[in-house]
Design goal:
The complex is a heterodimer of chains A (251) and B (168). Chain A is of the alpha+beta class and 251 residues long. Chain A is built from seven helices and nine strands. Chain A is globular. Classes of the chains: A alpha+beta (251), B mainly alpha (168). The complex binds heme C (3 copies). One heme C binds next to helix 3, helix 4 and helix 5 of chain B.
Chain lengths: 251, 168
């Protein structure tokens, strides 16, 4: 088991609350539902606004234990080439397997930046490099990041990576370099050009699992909002009151 | 007598192989210097920005103030999500960094890279290309396979021979 949630109270509390949802969700999310939501792209010369709040819904009931299509797609989209040093290779999204010690049931889920409304990484950043964009995407402004890594300590989700070595062959839309912290950007470059989807969610859909739905949490007609309204979705470490933009079903 | 001595000296100098070698070497070196950094050796931009302006602003202004435009656009893009193309760094690189006649794209570490050519001459140091691609996407993609193979080779050597020096 590569990772288990280590806070016993939280684990059990959430489990008893969500056990019903597992059953419900399993019934209600029929396979083969096409999850597309078309919204107009923001004009390129306009700043983003709080009208949108981008988020992601993860349905762990359909997330496959042996699949890491989302991880591969993320690495390719953002040029996260491995240096073959797993301890320090950048990781914007990773797969976790959480085992219920009582029942032996294993839940498989992707973990990434949860794009909190109240992000601890932003609170602790001494330069303001860690920030939350108006539309809810939590980012590192690498032009002001000094690499102190306080944000990595503060993040309850271990979502951030530090770049220890000089990099080469970065993709033009995804600049990255030594001495900065980085994490999931919700594919901000794709969102800004109006793709309305992230690389991980696209890959999951392409593989026929549809465990990931990206969308606007503020738009009641978006697929993600409709699903969340109908079936609910929990936050990991909801006790911290961070109001995460990434929600999970089935845990 | 003096005349004879002088002409002997001249002919000795003219016949000295060492001297000719030196002259040839100096000429070669200066030619390399002249051509390498000269604009003819920097592949031209892809095209004009618009009907009226060749670059994104008039060239005289770009020469003096290009960095102000890029730096201003940088903050607007990262913080506010403004994605106009005019002052985008991706845009500069896309138009200005083109392949030479052998199909190679210059890196920022070479003096034939459009941005580096000038910065070398004016002793400007920038860190932008530690993170930003110094070549357009099509060029990055073509070298990716190569660097992957090189990395694989170094890893193999490392594993088999335990040579730490090779894998820095
Ligand atoms: C530590 C890495 C890093 C360094 C160094 C860096 N940048 Fe960036 N830059 C980024 C990241 C990350 C983005 C965000 C990319 C996105 O959201 O599309 C960015 C975005 C930009 C953008 C907006 C996107 C575009 O291409 O128009 C500009 C302009 C820019 N940087 C200019 C610069 C300049 C000029 C320098 C050097 C003075 C520089 N950057 C140095 C990481 C870096
Ligand atoms: C669509 C193509 C295009 C784009 C995009 C573009 N340029 Fe240019 N730029 C040109 C052309 C053409 C010239 C004129 C070159 C010449 O006369 O040889 C030029 C000239 C320049 C010069 C003056 C060079 C000299 O000879 O003194 C600078 C500096 C410059 N550009 C910087 C930039 C920067 C910085 C950006 C990005 C903000 C940029 N350019 C974007 C096409 C472009
Ligand atoms: C015509 C020559 C010339 C060309 C071509 C040129 N630069 Fe510059 N650049 C300069 C000079 C000179 C400075 C320093 C100006 C100063 O400090 O007042 C400078 C400064 C900069 C700075 C600001 C450095 C800082 O820390 O303030 C950036 C960023 C920059 N250049 C980016 C570029 C990029 C990107 C390109 C290629 C697209 C480019 N330059 C092409 C001459 C040039």
């Amino acid at each position: 088991m590569p990772y288990t949630l280590d806070t016993q109270e939280v684990d059990t509390a959430r489990r008893s609350f969500t056990r019903g949802i597992v059953a419900l969700g399993g019934l209600a999310i029929a396979p083969g539902v096409v999850l597309y939501h078309s919204a107009e792209a923001k004009p390129a010369n306009q700043p983003v606004s709080g009208k949108q709040r981008w988020g992601m819904l993860v349905n762990t009931n359909v997330c496959q234990e042996d699949c890491d299509a989302c991880v591969t797609a993320c690495n390719e989209e953002n040029g996260l080439w491995s240096l073959d040093r797993p301890a320090t290779d950048a990781q914007w999204i990773r797969k976790l397997h959480v085992k219920d010690r009582q029942t032996g049931h294993v839940t498989s889920l992707p973990m990434m930046c949860q794009h909190c409304e109240h992000p601890p990484c932003v609170d602790v950043c001494p330069t303001g490099a860690s920030f939350r964009r108006e539309d809810g995407i939590v980012l590192v402004n690498k032009h002001t990041c000094i690499g102190c890594r306080y944000c990595m300590m503060a993040c309850p989700y271990k979502a951030r990576s530090f770049i220890h070595e000089p990099l080469q062959d970065q993709l033009p839309h995804s600049p990255r370099g030594k001495g900065c912290v980085e994490s999931c950007t919700l594919c901000v470059h794709k969102v800004d050009r109006g793709d309305n989807n992230t690389a991980c969610a696209e890959a999951c859909t392409k593989d026929g699992h549809q465990a990931l739905v990206f969308g606007d949490l503020n738009d009641p007609d978006s697929e993600i909002s409709k699903q969340l309204k109908r079936h609910g979705g929990s936050q990991i470490r909801a006790d911290l009151g961070l109001n995460t933009g990434v929600r999970y079903q089935g845990i | 007598m003096a005349e004879l001595k002088q002409s002997m000296l001249v002919s000795r100098i003219a016949h000295s192989r060492f001297l000719w070698l030196a002259v040839i070497m100096v000429t070669c070196v200066s030619m390399i210097r002249v051509f390498a950094g000269s604009p003819e050796n920097i592949p031209p931009p892809k095209g004009k920005y618009s009907e009226d302006t060749v670059c994104v602003e008039p060239v005289e202004i770009m020469r003096r103030r290009h960095f102000e435009y890029i730096l201003d656009h940088r903050d607007k893009t990262v913080i506010e999500g403004i994605r106009t193309k005019q002052y985008s760094l991706i845009g500069c690189i896309d138009c200005h960094i083109t392949p030479n006649e052998r199909g190679e794209y210059a890196r920022y570490s070479e003096e034939t890279h459009f941005c580096a050519s000038c910065h070398l001459f004016t002793a400007v140091t920038i860190d932008c290309f530690q993170c930003h691609a110094d070549r357009p996407e099509e060029a990055v993609r073509t070298t990716l396979d190569l660097s992957g193979t090189t990395a694989w080779f170094l890893r193999e050597v490392h594993e088999r021979l335990q040579l730490d020096v090779l894998v820095q």
